[in-house]
Amino acid sequence: MTDSKTTDSKTTDSKAPGGKRARLVAAACQAVYQQGIEKTTLADIAAAAGIPVGNVYYYFKTKNDIIQAVVEAHLREADALLAAIESDHDSPRDRLKALFAALAGQVDLIARYGCPHGTLCLELDKRADAPDLAARLMREPVDWAQRQFAALGCPDADALAIEVIARYQGAALLSSTFRDPALMTREATRVATWLDTLPTGPPQSSAHRHAH
Amino acid sequence: MTDSKTTDSKTTDSKAPGGKRARLVAAACQAVYQQGIEKTTLADIAAAAGIPVGNVYYYFKTKNDIIQAVVEAHLREADALLAAIESDHDSPRDRLKALFAALAGQVDLIARYGCPHGTLCLELDKRADAPDLAARLMREPVDWAQRQFAALGCPDADALAIEVIARYQGAALLSSTFRDPALMTREATRVATWLDTLPTGPPQSSAHRHAH
Q1: Nearest C-alpha neighbor of B176 from the set B100, B91, B119
Q2: CB of B131 within 8 Å of any CB in chain A?
Q3: Looking at the complex, does the CB of residue A26 fall below 8 Å from at least one CB of chain B?
Q4: pLDDT tens for residues A135-194?
């Protein structure tokens, strides 16, 4: 994964926040989230970023290049969110609740456009050309949740990680389908209750901290 | 909703199974499932149905007309599946397990293309023109599940219905993202265990059978 925080003199314009490349990637993230990959054109992205379409090709040759950059931007954001949750909460249970709450914190956007990661994965899943990109994006929160359940001493940490991320993704889909932000909020409360009553034990050997 | 089972003399060619309209709708269902709405053209659908593209306009003026027909075909299938489950199983618990098992019975397709209903809803959700279609498609299994939980005497039947359908939809998304059919099978087993241990009570007053 590239480190977007490094901004040496050579890459200042293209990689720094506000640089042309960063503006294009931000515009692409928003366009893909709101209208999907297929409908989004390089011209849309250029217009939203305020950059002549001819210049886009300097940064991205194909639409696939830009999709890759969008996925990498999402991965960096996910990484930053998970790191912030780890530093804010010591208990794995609190961390898992905080993850669901953070995602449910965007209920209005989710009720309109779905989960940014889930909807992107779903579009990528239909394409034959980029299954790895989608898998990387979804693997990140699943593996993180697995480590929290293992630290809680749950022997079925793998299955619980799939369950909690599946519940979140499913709730996001239903919330956007029914245009109902409250559905997502109710599910976050129910997941918190479920986590509070989950039987736990001594930490499992596979437990390890998220490395940064 | 139109009644596809009626085949009077005037509509035999256009509505009967094997008729041109039915072939176009079946081709559209498959194309939309495998490549998504945006990528599917009327020309693709005509070619898959073996019908000259010029004739397609006799049945469907716009892509939206065909999307509407695809959703209606899915609704009829869902209706038939739920009716079959009701006649095969008397216990609401067994019915809920049978629904998840029926969906998980298509694990290989789901691991490649996702849930046909979920992925269609997700694409429709991004469009501004057809939110009602997606909501109708997802309302059907949610309402059916709600009636089963109410018949089981669960006081929170509404929330449980959202939970079980969200778990299925989320598992389908993860299964296709990771290209992992076994993930879906494991989730079906875990949902069955969860249903078996769910505390129940006397049937709730809102319980009523699915009407046909």
Answers
A1: B119
A2: yes
A3: no
A4: 999 999 999 999 999 999 999 999 999 999 999 999 999 999 999 999 999 999 999 999
Which residues lie below 8 Å from residue B49, measured CB to CB, with a gap of 6+? B20, B23, B24, B26, B27
Interchain CB contact of A166 with B (< 8 Å): yes
Would you call B93 an interface residue with chain A, using a CB distance cutoff of 8 Å?
no
Distance separating alpha carbons of residues A69 and A77, to the nearest angstrom = 12
At B144, give phi and psi (nearest 5°).
Answer: -60, -45
pLDDT digits (tens, 9 = 90+) for A107-127: 999 998 899 999 999 888 877
Q: Contact A170/B174, CB-based, under 8 Å?
A: no
Q: Does ipTM exceed 0.95?
A: no
Burial-class residue B53 by CB neighbours within 10 Å (0-12, 13-18, 19+): middle
The residue among A128 and A97 whose pLDDT is bigger is A97
> Which candidate, A120, A116, A140, A119, places its Cα nearest to that of A130?
A120
Contact between chains at B169 and A169 (C-beta distance less than 8 A) = yes
Q: Which chain A residues are Cβ-neighbours of B179 within 8 angstroms? A: 131, 135
